[in-house]
Amino acid sequence: MSVTSIVLVHAHALFREGLRHHLAALPDFRIAGEASNGQQAIQLVDYTDPDLVLMEVDLPGVNGLEVSRAIKRTHPHVGIVLFSAAMDGQHVVKAIRAGVAAYMPRNIGWDALHETLQQVRRGEYPINELVLSLPDVAAQVLEAFRLMVVDEDTQSIYSPLSPRELEVLELVAAGRTNKEIALLLDISNQTVKNHVSSILRKLAVNDRTQAVVYAMRRGWIKVVLPGD
Fold first, then answer.
1. Hey, where are the domains in the chain?
2. What is the pLDDT of residues 96-129, one digit of tens each?
3. Under CATH, which number does the domain 4-147 receive?
4. What is the DSSP letter of 166?
5. Quick one: three-class SS letters along 74-135?
6. Inter-residue contact 218 to 212 (CB < 8 Å)
């Protein structure tokens, strides 16, 4: 397997330094960049397109869960590993819904951290093992999901569409034509067509109507009425 690039996100420089020092000694990982807050993290991921993001939940401004949701919208392939002091079921549920691959306590050991990163780089989701290994957390997670109103055929808990694609799809849902969408968003008609093609491909649907229904059922878009 090729070298895995990682973005480190933590408010404290000393903590990031410790992570950097440890990971630099591992030949299969490379530090792509570091950020001290959520907004920096989102921008850095956009710039570096890493394989993994190793991040603290309690960030100033935009917290780690919100950052995770933003990253998974535009970079669905990125594996996200979160540190947190709160290991209760409600936090785990939020992490799962944000598309997080692993959710770990702050006092995790280096060996366990390395193993977790290896799992995530292989496309695995150790967060599921966490739910199964902690009975109290499992009970809270199951109860939380039982209370959620989720479409039965939901295959993804986060949107794989970019913010711009979601804008386009909302206008499609409102019955706008490609020409109208282009005027409203100040983009070319061909760009609108490209966005629609990308949406259909990402959602694995055959037409615009199916895409709208798919996204609305999952709460990714709202209906924008003409004139709004």
1. 4-147, 163-217
2. 778 888 999 888 888 889 999 998 888 887 887 7
3. 3.40.50.2300
4. H
5. HCCCCEEEEEECCCCHHHHHHHHHCCCCEEEECCCCHHHHHHHHHHHHCCCCCHHHHHHHCH
6. no
Contact call for residues 154 and 206 (beta carbons, < 8 A): no
Tell me the sheet residues that pair with 55: 9, 82
Average pLDDT over the chain reads 82
3-class DSSP state of 97: helix
Structural tokens at position 93:
């549920």
How far are the Cα atoms of 16, 61, 167 from residue 164, in angstroms, in the given order? 32, 23, 5
CATH code of the region 163-217: 1.10.10.10
Phi/psi region, residue 134 (left: phi>0; alpha: psi -120 to 50; beta: rest), is: beta
Whole-number pLDDT of residue 185: 92
pLDDT score recorded for residue 143: 62
Strand partners, 119: none
